[in-house]
Specification:
By secondary structure, the protein is α+β, with helices and mostly antiparallel strands. 24% of the residues lie in helices and 27% in strands. Its EC number is 3.1.11.2.
Amino acid sequence: MKIATFNINGIKARLPRLLEWLEETRPAVACLQEIKTQDEGFPADEFEKIGYHAIWHGQKSFNGVAILADGTTPVEIQRGLAGEDEDDHSRYLEADVFGTRVACIYLPNGNPQPGPKFDYKLRWMERLRQRMCAIAAEEVPAIVLGDYNVIPTDKDVWAPVAMAQDALMQPESRDAYARLLTDGWTDALATHNPQGGVWTYWDYQAGAWQRDHGFRIDHGLLSPELADRLIACGVDKDHRGREKASDHAPVWFEFAPVR
């Protein structure tokens, strides 16, 4: 079973590229971030034409997450995170699908830092941790994947000095991410690529894609019950180089069936 994540950076603008990727790679589950559309504008019919059923949590012009499944409809468990009733950002969607708990996240960017946006990012990460602890307590096969907007270590960026002042690399962001791992979650890409050098994002500016000036911010964290079944994982890098592509590349994780 393959589960993937893709920050699509505007589902309407990238729909041809998204459908192309789905048909070429056929993940069982695909989590999308930055769909940037209200709920009524989500193109569910286009996915159903190729066999995918979806649930989504939209927002006008910004944010937005969705979970697609091949041949079945994900069973929604939760949308949004508890802890801040005034937080109306569409950044979290959780469902059960194919016997697996799947949480799709679009973590706040946090720039500029220091400031209110960075403070919100850190609060959101703590709220996420609380939800992940609750999932872990259920002892179910689970994956929390998406755009974390955190570069975990220096080996996850083409040049640490270039991003040193960015919210994605601040010690507080990294510490909050590291706490998720100490809670027992496995960073799948890092585990399979201990040397680093794997990018999932390349900015549109300054020829970043052409120069391979990227970094890793799209992650999949696995519960122990699912980590034991991980066979392979990777980045569909070539999709970043296609016409009118997202600035992120899809990331996928493949799991052995339950024995």
